[in-house]
Structure formats: C-alpha cells, structure tokens
Design brief:
- The complex is a heterodimer of chains A (about 250) and B (about 300).
- Chain A has about 250 residues and is an alpha/beta fold.
- Chain A has a single domain, classed as Glutaconate Coenzyme A-transferase.
- Helix content of chain A is about 25%, strand content about 20%.
- The model of chain A has no long low-confidence stretch (mean pLDDT about 95).
- In chain B, about 30% of the residues lie in helices and about 20% in strands.
- Chain B contains ten helices and eleven strands.
- The radius of gyration of chain B is 20 Å and the shape is globular.
- Classes of the chains: A alpha/beta (about 250), B alpha/beta (about 300).
Amino acid sequence: MRRSDICIAAIAECFRGESDILCNPIGISPIIGGRLAKATFAPDVVMTDAVSVLAANTLPIGNQDAPRVIESYAPYRTIFDILWSGRRHVMMGATQIDQYGNQNIAAIGNFQRPKAQLLGLRGAPGNLINHRTSYWVPNHTKRSFVSNVDVVSGPGYDRMGEIGRPSNRYHDLYRVVSNLGVFDFDTPDNRMRLRSIHPGVEVSEIIENTDFEIVIPENLELSRLPSEAELEIINVIDPTELRYSEVQDA
Amino acid sequence: MGEAMADKVITEEDFIAELKSGMTIGVGGWGSRRKPMSLIMAIIRAGIQDLTIVSYGGPEIGLLSATGQLKKAIYGFVSLDSIPLEPHFRLARQTGKIEATEFDEGAFYLGLMAAAHRVPFYPTRAGLGSDMLEMNPELKLVESPYPDDSGEHEELVAIPAFDIDVSLIHMNRADQGGNGQFLGPDLFFDDLFAMAAKKTYMSCEKIVATENLLDEGSVHTLRIPRIFVNGVIEAPRGAHFTECPPDYGRDEDFQNLYAATAKDPDLWESFKSRYLEVDSHQEYLRMVDSREDGT
C-alpha cells in the first residue's frame, strides 16, 4: 500500500458525516480525498470543478475537458458568500503549523520585508473564523510542524481563546493530516494530539519530526487503509498519479 | 425616436491622457485571468510613475513593480494561477521594493463593495486572531450597535472602502456606449471595480452593436452597464497573456517566459526591450506571434 493512498483515505475521513456544505479542499491530495469522500460516504456535500461551477459527478483532477454534470453556479463571489454563511469545510495547506494550529502560508521572516514571500494570507483569516477548517501537510518535518509560526494566516486555538466569545464561536479547526498521521485538537487545552498514525510509521518518527511537544494518546489508533473499491475510485480521480509526486513512500 | 447614446469609444492615447502619476488604479480580473493587459502595457509604455494598484493581483502587479512604476500594492493575493505566486511580486516583496497592504481575500471583496456602495466600511470577522491586523495597523475594529442573544456587542473588523481613482477592466464584448459583456465562466469583481472608482476604462475583445449584444450570451452576461464606464477601448487579445475565455486561453508558454525573467536580469532586459518597449498593442502582439523565430 502506497503512503499517498493512505493519506488520501485519511483526508476523505475528514469529511465523513458532512452534508449540505461546500467541501472545498485545496491542493492535489486534498482534492482527491474530498472527491473520494463525496463519491462514497459523503454524497450530500457539494464540490466545485475548480473553476466556477458545482459538479455533481466525480471529476478527474486537473482535466478541464472532463464532462461535468453541473448542479449549480459558484463563481468566486459566491464562494465568499458561502464562506461567510458557514456552509463550508475547507482543507488548506500549511507551510508552518504550531501546536495550537496556527497556520502560516504568508511569509517566512518578517512580513514587512520577508526572507521568503509565500502565497500570502489568502482566505485563511476568513476561513478560520467562519467555518470548519482542516490542514494538509505532505512533508511532516520540524520545519513544517514548528514551535512558532512566522506569520499567523489562519489562527489556532490559543489566538481564538484570547479573542473569546462571541467572535470565536464559528472557529472549528478540525483535523491536520500529514504524511505521517492524522492530528486533532481534542485535548483540554486544545494542543495538537496524534489522532491516528499511518500504518508503517513509528511514533518516534512523529516526535522527531515535530518541533513542539505533541500529545500522544495511550492507545494508538492506526489510520485505516483505503478499500479496493476506494482505490479504484482514487484511480478514476487521479489517473495520471499526481498524488505520488506529492507524498513519498517510506 | 430618442437621441442616440453617447459614443464612449476612445483610443489608447485618449486613455493614457486621463492618467497621472501617483494615481490609485483598480484592476479587474483575477490572478492571470481576464486582466486588461493592453491597458497595463500602455501604462508601462507611457512611464506613469508612483502608482498604487488595487486588485486580486496578477501580472499587472509583477510587471509594474519590475518596471519600477509601482509604489504600493493593495491586494487579496498576487498569483499567476498556474504559477501560484507571481515571481516579480515575490522579488519586489523580498527586496522591499514596494509597499504592500495585504487583505484576506474575502475582506478585499468588502473593501471594494464598500467603495462601490459609498459607505466608509463593511464589517467582517475576517482578520480577528490572524496577523492581518498587525500587518495593517491602520485597520480599525468596530463594535456592533446590536446586542446578540447573550447581550454581547460583537467586535468586528471594519474594512475601509478602497479609494480608487481609475478602474480598468477587460470584457469579451462591449457596445460603443460602454455596456460590457463577459462570456467566460466568471465575472470576478469587475462590476464592483467599475462602481468603486471615480472613472472606469473598459477594454474589450470586440465592439458590437447594442442590438447584437445577446448574439453570443444570455442577458445574464450583461453585467457592466454603461453608467459606470467612461471610455471603451477595442483591444483584440487585450488580455494576453492572461486567459480570456471563450475567446482564448492563457498563453502559458509566454507566461513561463515572463516568469523566468524574475530570476535573470539579462532575460528581463531582453523581455523588456522586445515586448514592453514597442509602439502599440498591435506591435506587441506581432512580437508575441513571431517569438519562435525571434529572440
């Protein structure tokens, strides 16, 4: 079993139980995982074709010519309106993420004169404070799972705690999926916890590649393997195997 | 019979005569999609300085920073889509060449809408808890005058109305009166850019008679009414190298060529002399089309 396919199933699991929301994963593995969830156990989410419509059918990634069953229109302005309505679960990338889930995709170094300009805040500030958000980090190292992020694009639980109610009432930082495991914040002080470890990964590997103290539960859960039927669907969504360039096998 | 509607068709020279150094210019489109590139190239040729650009940024921000004409960028992001981060913008940020005001993407929409609706701000939660407020110390909070169910008065970020002198948008079709039509998948925020600015100039692929505006698209594609447009410039392939569907897609090869110039000053100099130091949009297109046997 390739590690990438385990990650895709773990990403799909983030959307289990969701219905009547815009499932809006961003990036290669998140899009494949989101489309897998919609094609299997989460049929009542809607997803975009990555351009401007909501497509009811299962689309192959990156193929703009694939036939689409259009169920609604969703230009960018509508995406923001849906975002503010709260009917959305986004999965974004994170160049850096810390123990409370603060995410940085904006800049390395000082924002005023960055050492490295990254993508920018993008929609992260609005996403985090309006609806459920998850993250995908394809290379789990001390450079991505950091003790302090350089810039906070998407605020984590400590920042949201400082702001307090009522402003933080829609903040719902849900899961972080990396190439090593799945993480959540279901701890008394909302520190990041290992929720499940991917088969073939040692706990020590996670600890060594994380630059903060991560909560490890006593009884370790294993991330599940995708079923044969799921692997077939993954191949339909990603026939050119883009996913294998994003996640290396051990 | 009433009078005929005003003819707002102007030349590129007429358009340039309306601009001044130091202006704040709103640019429609999104990333590397349906950008009014022929108007941006005309601004580059005219050498208008100290500009502030307000946009969902694409190559207009990168090009104007590379030519040294950009003082400040106000943006939700700056991307070439197929190249996630605009390379000349990256360079300008890392060398401290330009001032930057960066908004959450949705918050940017509200600044545009506030300007369009002539209110001083629109409130949003976006920015609370993130570094957006620290990055932009001029942003203020506002307390809701209305208590919520628990009696609390919620604090929100007040996104100020953008102060835009001139907006530039590119449409697929327009009539000579200034009614604009988009035929692609997304209008983006071009109607708000047109409403938000003191004046708006619209380039288009083709000027058609008003009675022919519905030949290629439904009434829903007529989203730029002429009351918001001061001048129309016919510019076939005016969005090149950005995409302008259904008329044409993005010129990815040319975009890659442009992107490579951010890493190589010599390449930038030859790009500049070949494509920017030309006499007209027509000559630019001739250089683009002859590039295989050119440089």
